[in-house]
């Protein structure tokens, strides 16, 4: 028997069988018939080892080529039939938009939304108004206007996600500082809550997407002690108790000096241990990076730094919520899991 | 940054850590966070210097050697050792029986007691130690090597005792001056009021060779190199560093390599000045040139990697080619080898921006580049070269073979910064007396030029202007304006001593951000409609888009994506929400999700358009049921914005929607989004199985910009309403909107509202029941009146082709 001829007829036979297939299920049956375990081609492949070595390679090559060709034929037909099936199904269906709605039980608000409302409420009572950032912003507003010149090592402090249009996904909501300060006359009291982005790998304590709340205060006679007093009062309000603080120097180019306000790690249940409190032995957590606004940043926004002074801060919302609610993994916030949402 | 207490004490001899908690608190609050304080060398016992005299093969093991070791040059001790570097003449550290070394992983305590024991049948009377066993690093393959001049039999156990302080350096991107023991010691001296012995300003070579080795230095790119100091050394012998130096370097996280490299690293950790040593014999024409790299010039760096340079990069070249990437890393071809006899010691100062750019472009950071890119002071290059040469004289027998070359065209000078005294009260908000202020400044080497002008009570009198001129030493490159001096005063005064004050303000209420609050209200409305609020990523990948029958075409692309799943900025929330529906499907079955988020739509402007989008999805037993649940969200919106929001059939369904199960949502007649059933192909892609999923997406711009009128009261009716439910068959589909138009055309009196109440399907025929409400104001409808109104409705229905039931 001429093998080549045999193979050729297989192809023709399949083509004709496929031609008469009407549904995708028919094609699946043909796949089993032509390529399944007991198909002639599989048997031929199994029988290869009985051939003499010199013939084996050529015969095997031919068989595999045929197998591939059959697969392609089958897949093409299957795609075409499925597409047609979707189309005929779609054409036959319709929806009454006017059907009355069905009620469901109340949904849960994301914990960041819930806590943001509380935080915004506290600052609004203090006289701050809200401004929202752009998700995509330019280098000028994100860095240059904030005393971070191009090429300065301070730019390495943020792993930035850059975009093809020469903009970036904001690394902090400080991106609104220059706009807020150059569009308003002091006194300026503004908070900027928004989503920020960093180019970093995600784990229990790191997320490339997170929420930050920036605050800006500019007026005459604003002192560093006002900054400490204001943010300390915020923590008292937010945690509904007197929160002890510790202040550590750090570095951010847009404030001078840069400070990190810290609070004690709460005990299990979220309560602060205020009895036997010893600042030197307490386990402190960084919560609010802040500082008096750098004179260069005020000047860049057209504010006379000899007349006015101010302070700014930028706190991570998830971090605050994690401390308050004892959440141990940052990744849950973007997990979309209802069993996370329904706890709050 | 790791710091050795012993090393710090070189500069602050009186410094001790008496109370660990208060030490940490003080350094945390005045300098930077203390990450850890670790006492090193605890538990080690009976460690002696010893020399190997003979090495024989072990009778039973190919790996092991039987060594004859001596501690006094006479008595021989038999030691079995597996290290490949044992050889006659090698001086190392021997742990005698009864002594202890570190054995990470071997024993629970981490310490191993050494005894006399047989190793594969041969007695071993102690142990020759690796650097891992001595607690220096984690290299345990070979035993530690010491200079052959080391005195034998010396008990070196106590040399390992030290305290290593780990200080967080993220607070110092602007402070190259603290990246050294001298720098941190200066800060500690100010914090703890210790006496500080600074780095000497000048030093002399101790001895010079008779024969000189010529060296020519040329600076061709002077804008990138502020100072260049170098000297040649001859007659040196490369070998291991003495134990004290190996311990110090390793404790500070730098691996000891050989005496020449170790001395350059020592200088960097000691005074902060990075250095480099070239093998003199390999420097062509005995000439070093600072120049820009040539286009495509190549250099293999010390880490063995071949680097392609660009014309923007600064190099140190010899007579032929680049031999070092300036300020970042030396080249392999002039590296110090074991047989090197003559070297060039070099220390220079490089322009910070160029160092950072080159380091980023090459993806190459080093201890040196970390310091240079912060803008180092140039004042220490010459002194570092002289001190390193003198150390090598001692440690490697080197001789100085030439004059010190020091090219320093423009010397850095101390700056004079004007400082307004009352800013302490105005901007810090604290009251400091004159002496306290002077003490703080002087501890930091900041010198007020006219201290006599400080009135004793000046700082309490905020209205008085006194300008002090303050001299700032060259190493404080970060202090340039009054605010920088205020920072120094603030942190050394102690932030915990600041009063907690609140700003005074007028009683104007804060402006309300209507968009922000409207979005919050919408979130509450969506939750009340039965949807859970989720947050999803704003970046999306081609795969998730494809599952939703979308493509990345037209999306803003990320230049440096974290992963392919985050390669584009999304313009729809639907794919991300569907993904989260899948996450919850198994556990929760029937539920709905929503999100409000900005998206980016490139428009050719400077910034893309970034509208807020509200999207939701509902999963249920079939598409229609899912739709009816999700529709509650639209009905809630209709209630919130009466008369504004309508739902109408559309043929332009988005790709992810079922083309004939999709409605368009309009606001004041303008299309703002879609609601409908998910395309079955997308449903199959997400593997929702037999469940039906409905989705909606609405651009919120119109809604957020809408300013509603104040709703006006309408008098309540004085007579009861009449309600009639009418059922009919509608084989070719039914549109409430069409019927409403028809009914208003028919002008039926008192008809207040009409809405679908229920539907019913039998034998592929569909019946609708619509509720009609008639509300006259003050005259009760008679039966005849009701009948005639119902008749009018029936006629309207019939004329639309519906069959009354």
Task: Please give a structural write-up.
The complex is a heterodimer of chains A (344) and B (805). Chain A is of the alpha+beta class and 344 residues long. Chain A has helices at residues 3-20, 24-35, 40-47, 53-91, 111-125, 139-142, 177-183, 224-239, 295-300, 317-325, 338-341; strands at 129-130, 136-137, 161-162, 168-169, 188-197, 209-219, 246-250, 258-264, 284-292, 309-316. Chain A has two domains: 3-90; 111-341, Bira Bifunctional Protein, Domain 2 (BirA Bifunctional Protein, domain 2, 2-Layer Sandwich). Chain A has eleven helices and ten strands. A seven-stranded mixed beta sheet of chain A has the order 1-5-6-10-9-8-7, sandwiched between helices. A three-stranded antiparallel beta sheet of chain A has the order 2-4-3. With 805 residues, chain B is an alpha+beta fold. Chain B has 19 helices and 40 strands. Chain B is elongated, with a radius of gyration of 41 Å. The model of chain B has no long low-confidence stretch (mean pLDDT 93). Chains A and B meet through helix 4, helix 5, strand 1, strand 2 and strand 3 of A and helix 2, helix 6, helix 9, helix 11 and helix 12 of B.
Features:
heterodimer, A: 344 residues, alpha+beta, BirA Bifunctional Protein, domain 2, 2 domains, seven-stranded mixed sheet, 11 helices, B: 805 residues, Phenylalanyl-tRNA Synthetase, Chain B, domain 1, OB fold (Dihydrolipoamide Acetyltransferase, E2P), Phenylalanyl-tRNA Synthetase, Chain B, domain 3, 6 domains, six-stranded antiparallel sheet, 19 helices, elongated
């Amino acid at each position: 028997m001429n093998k080549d001829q045999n193979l050729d007829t297989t192809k023709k036979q399949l083509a004709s069988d496929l031609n008469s297939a009407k549904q995708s299920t028919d094609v699946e049956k043909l796949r089993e018939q032509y390529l399944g375990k007991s198909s002639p081609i599989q048997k031929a492949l199994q029988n290869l080892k009985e051939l003499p070595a010199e013939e084996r390679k050529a015969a095997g090559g031919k068989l595999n080529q045929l197998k591939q060709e059959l697969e392609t034929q089958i897949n093409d037909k299957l795609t075409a039939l499925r597409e047609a099936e979707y189309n005929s199904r779609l054409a036959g269906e319709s929806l009454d938009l006017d059907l009355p709605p069905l009620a469901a039980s109340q949904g849960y608000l994301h914990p960041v939304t819930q806590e943001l409302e509380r935080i915004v409420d506290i600052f609004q009572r203090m006289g701050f108004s809200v401004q929202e950032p752009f998700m995509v912003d330019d280098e000028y507003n994100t860095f240059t206007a904030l005393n971070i010149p191009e090429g300065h090592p301070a730019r390495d402090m943020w792993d930035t996600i850059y975009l093809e249009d020469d903009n970036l996904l904001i690394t902090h909501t400080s991106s609104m500082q220059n706009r807020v300060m150059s569009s308003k006359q002091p006194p300026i009291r503004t908070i900027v809550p928004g989503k920020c982005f960093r180019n970093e790998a995600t784990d229990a304590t790191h997320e490339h997407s997170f929420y930050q709340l920036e605050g800006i205060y500019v007026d005459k006679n604003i002192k560093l002690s006002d900054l400490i007093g204001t943010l300390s009062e915020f923590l008292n309000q937010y945690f509904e108790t007197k929160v002890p603080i510790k202040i550590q120097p750090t570095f951010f180019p847009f404030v001078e000096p840069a400070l990190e306000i810290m609070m004690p790690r709460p005990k299990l249940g979220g309560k602060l241990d205020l009895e036997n409190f010893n600042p030197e032995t307490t386990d402190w957590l960084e919560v609010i990076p802040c500082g008096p606004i750098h004179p260069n940043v005020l000047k860049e926004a057209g504010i006379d730094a000899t007349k006015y002074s101010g302070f700014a801060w930028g706190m991570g919302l998830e971090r605050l919520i994690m401390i308050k609610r004892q959440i141990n993994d940052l990744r849950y916030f973007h997990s979309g899991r209802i069993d996370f949402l329904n706890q709050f | 940054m790791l710091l050795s207490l012993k090393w710090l004490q070189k500069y602050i001899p009186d410094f001790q850590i008496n109370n660990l908690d208060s030490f940490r608190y003080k350094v945390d609050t005045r300098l930077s966070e203390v990450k850890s304080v670790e006492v090193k060398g605890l538990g080690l016992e009976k460690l002696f210097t010893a020399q190997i005299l003979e090495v024989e093969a072990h009778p039973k093991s190919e790996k092991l050697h039987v060594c004859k070791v001596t501690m006094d040059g006479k008595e021989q001790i038999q030691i079995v050792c597996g290290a490949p570097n044992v050889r006659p003449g090698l001086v190392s550290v021997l742990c005698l029986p009864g002594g202890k070394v570190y054995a990470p992983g071997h024993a629970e305590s981490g310490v191993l007691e050494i005894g006399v024991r047989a190793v594969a049948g041969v007695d071993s009377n102690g142990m020759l130690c690796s650097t891992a066993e001595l607690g220096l690093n984690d290299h345990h393959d070979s035993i530690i090597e010491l200079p052959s001049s080391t005195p034998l039999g010396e008990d070196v156990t106590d040399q390992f005792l030290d305290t290593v302080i780990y200080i967080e350096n993220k607070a110092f991107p602007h402070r190259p001056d603290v990246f050294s023991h001298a720098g941190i010691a200066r800060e500690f001296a100010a914090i703890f009021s210790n006496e500080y012995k600074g780095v000497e300003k000048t030093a002399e070579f101790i001895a010079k060779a008779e024969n000189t080795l010529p060296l020519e230095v040329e600076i061709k790119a002077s804008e990138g190199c502020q100072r260049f100091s170098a000297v040649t050394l001859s007659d040196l012998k490369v070998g291991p560093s003495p134990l004290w130096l190996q311990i110090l370097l390793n404790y500070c996280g730098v691996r000891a390599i050989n005496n020449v490299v170790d001395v350059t690293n020592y200088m960097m950790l000691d005074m902060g000045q990075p250095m480099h040593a070239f093998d003199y014999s390999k420097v062509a024409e005995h000439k070093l040139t600072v120049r820009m790299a040539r286009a495509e010039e190549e250099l293999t760096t010390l880490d063995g990697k071949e680097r392609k340079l660009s014309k923007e990069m600064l190099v140190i070249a010899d007579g032929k080619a680049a031999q070092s990437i300036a300020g970042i890393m030396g080249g392999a071809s002039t590296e110090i080898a074991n047989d090197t006899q003559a070297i060039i010691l070099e220390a220079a100062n490089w322009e910070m921006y160029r160092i950072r750019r080159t380091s980023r472009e090459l993806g190459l950071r080093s201890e040196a580049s970390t310091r240079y890119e912060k803008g180092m002071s140039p004042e220490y290059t010459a002194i570092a070269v002289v001190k390193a040469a003198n150390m090598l004289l001692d440690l490697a027998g080197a001789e100085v073979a030439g004059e010190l070359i020091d090219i320093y065209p423009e010397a850095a000078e101390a700056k004079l910064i004007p400082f307004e005294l009352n800013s302490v009260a105005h901007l810090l908000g604290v009251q400091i007396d004159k002496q306290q202020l002077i003490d703080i400044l002087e501890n930091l080497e900041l010198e007020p030029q006219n201290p006599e002008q400080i009135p004793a009570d000046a700082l309490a009198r905020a209205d008085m202007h006194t300008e002090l001129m303050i001299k700032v030493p060259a190493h404080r490159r970060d202090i340039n304006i009054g605010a920088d001096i205020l920072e120094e005063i603030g942190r050394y005064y102690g932030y915990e001593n600041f009063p907690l004050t609140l700003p005074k303000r007028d009683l104007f209420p804060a402006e309300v951000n209507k968009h922000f609050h409207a979005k919050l209200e919408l979130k509450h409305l969506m939750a009340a409609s039965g949807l859970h609020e989720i947050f999803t990523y704003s970046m999306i990948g081609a795969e998730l888009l494809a599952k939703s029958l979308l493509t990345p075409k037209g999306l803003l692309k990320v230049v440096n994506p974290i992963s392919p799943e985050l390669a584009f900025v999304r313009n729809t929330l639907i794919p991300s929400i569907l993904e989260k529906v899948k996450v919850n499907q198994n556990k929760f079955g029937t539920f709905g999700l929503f999100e409000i988020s900005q998206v980016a739509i490139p428009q050719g402007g400077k910034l893309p358009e970034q509208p807020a989008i509200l999207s939701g999805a509902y999963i249920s037993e079939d598409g229609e049921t899912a739709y009816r649940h999700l529709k509650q969200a639209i009905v809630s919106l209709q209630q919130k914005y009466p008369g504004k929001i309508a739902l109408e059939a559309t043929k332009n369904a988005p790709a992810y929607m079922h083309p004939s199960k999709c409605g368009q949502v309009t606001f004041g007649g303008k299309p703002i989004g879609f609601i409908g059933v998910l395309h079955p192909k997308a449903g199959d892609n997400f593997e929702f199985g037999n469940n039906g999923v409905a989705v909606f997406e609405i651009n919120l711009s119109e809604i957020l910009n809408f300013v509603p009128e104040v709703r006006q009261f309408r008098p309540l009716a004085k007579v009861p309403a009449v309600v009639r439910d009418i059922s009919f068959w509608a084989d070719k589909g039914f549109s409430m909107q069409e019927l409403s138009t028809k009914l208003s055309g028919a002008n039926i009196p008192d008809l207040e509202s009409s809405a679908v109440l229920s539907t019913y399907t039998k034998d592929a025929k569909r019946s609708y029941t619509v509720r009609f409400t008639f509300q006259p104001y003050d005259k009760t409808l008679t039966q005849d009146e009701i009948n005639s109104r119902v008749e009018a409705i029936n006629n309207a229905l019939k004329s639309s082709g519906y069959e009354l039931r």
